[in-house]
Amino acid sequence: MGSLLELNDRAKLEQYFIGQSDINIPKNIPQGDSIFDYLVNDNGQWGKFK
Known about the structure:
Oligomer: single chain
Number of helices: 1
Strand content: 5-15%
């Protein structure tokens, strides 16, 4: 979701997602990364997209 957005719109969507307590996304993403650098693996866990 959001992969077709421009970078500034991705940042807005990311901040919205982070602000929603009922959405299970990584909360402590390293500086320089975004939620768009991560995916959910086969075990249902978030991991860095390689």
